Amino acid sequence: MSRRLFTVGPVEVFPDTLDSMNRPMMVHRGKDYQDLQHGVVEKIRKVLDVDTEVFLAPASASGFLEGCVRSAVENKMAGLSNGSFGDRWQLIGQENGKKVQKISAEWGKALRKEHVAGKLEKDVEAVTVVSNESSTGILNPLSEIVEGIREQSEALIMVDGVTSVGAVDLKPRKLDLDALVFGSQKALALPPGLAVVCASHRLMEKAAKVKYRGYYLDLMQYKRLSDKDLPLTTPPVSLMYGLDYQLDKILREGVQNRYDRHQRMADMVREWASKRLGLYAEEGYRSNTISVVRLNGMDFKEFDKRLRQKGFEISPGYGSIKDETFRVGHMGDLSEKDIQDLLNVMDEVMEEMA
Ligand SMILES: Cc1ncc(COP(=O)(O)O)c(C=O)c1O
Asked: What is the CATH number of the domain that holds 267?
């Protein structure tokens, strides 16, 4: 049975996007592939308004979260966290043998400048920050966090934009971010399998000095080949066709229009959730791509089962708040009409269950 996905990723991929990938395979060491990769990289720069390096890997986004740590941290990093994905990047650091200064804030609340200002240890080489914390539905205020870091430290700033890139203006040029990592299966509305990182020249200079960066996710290896518009290893060619198509779609829609649409969809879900059950994230810092809704005693299994029977899918809670919340994804190519359909069906199911 077909389902309409209002999930946190993979998200709904529209038929025209799926069709765009249904093209003959090509070998990746040749002019046709080089032209495709060159075009994709240029369009990413245009959509995100960056002039950084742009690398693409056959991996989920976590691949480059790890690749950044391995490539740019010799000894010590700091990991900011106010949720599961912040914790995850700290863990990636630890499991790669780095010392990690953990800076943690309360879940459901935004990370603020005061959490970092004056708090970073002197020998920290890089700071990891999650822009949109998908477990709690908080969009962290990146510019004040970056300001807090830069006031005291020259550490690289590496940002997880997994559930914000393509939906929210992160201003990577203005904030001069050193790494911005994301994947194909979230707000870009593609199937999973491609990781992307925008990496600053400062980060690449640092990487050149770091020992034992590995191979598969080493940003220096990517740089060597991407200068010739080539991939490091065999790329997911079909996904590259799809990404090229989606980037054209985003440029046709207009980047700001896309951000505005995400704002409107988020407003609709928030209004519904505030009236019906309540939201987990603090007001003023709520995500424009994922709303984390309090269960307030509602039986999620039953709610989810009934929604699926009507052809709709949402996501359960995540991490330590898994049993208190559920999550609604409102990103990618969805429209306000799609969101209204979901809200109507959620109303219907809640009435059935009352
Ligand atoms: C904020 C955030 N960071 C990282 C990840 C991990 O991404 P992936 O599963 O593509 O490796 C996710 C996945 O949901 C996420 O939401």
From this structure: 3.90.1150.10
Torsion 326-332-336-339 (CA) sign: negative
CA distance 159 to 171: 12
157-195: pLDDT as tens digits? 999 999 999 999 999 999 999 999 999 999 999 999 999
**Distance in Å, CA 114 to ligand 1 centroid:** 26
Give yes or no: residues 209 and 277 share one domain.
no
What percent of the chain is modeled with pLDDT above 70? 99
Residues 124 and 215 in one domain: yes
Give the distance (Å) from ligand 1 centre to CA of residue 237.
22
Same domain, 235 and 274: no
Same domain flag for 59 and 191? yes
Domain that holds residue 155: 15-252
pLDDT at 2 over 90: no
Report residues whose beta carbon is within 6 angstroms of any ligand 1 atom: 9, 60-62, 85, 130, 132, 134, 160, 162-163, 183
> For a substitution probing ligand 1, which of 62, 66, 142, 182 has the most ligand atoms within 8 Å of its CB?
62
